Amino acid sequence: GWQAIDSTPQETSEDVFRCGPASLRAVRDGEVQKPYDAAYVFAQV
């Protein structure tokens, strides 16, 4: 599926400034418990 990635420096994730990947379906459906940065991307939207 499609994934959201924001390359704009946000917060450190594994010592790298990035946001993503996050499943678009998980963000759309509010499934913030999914792995990676789904909760963070959901909060941005």
Automatic annotation (TrEMBL):
Taxonomy, superkingdom: Eukaryota
A GO term, aspect molecular function: protein-glutamine gamma-glutamyltransferase activity
InterPro entries listed in its UniProt record: Papain-like_cys_pep_sf, Transglutaminase, Transglutaminase-like_sf
Protein name: Annulin
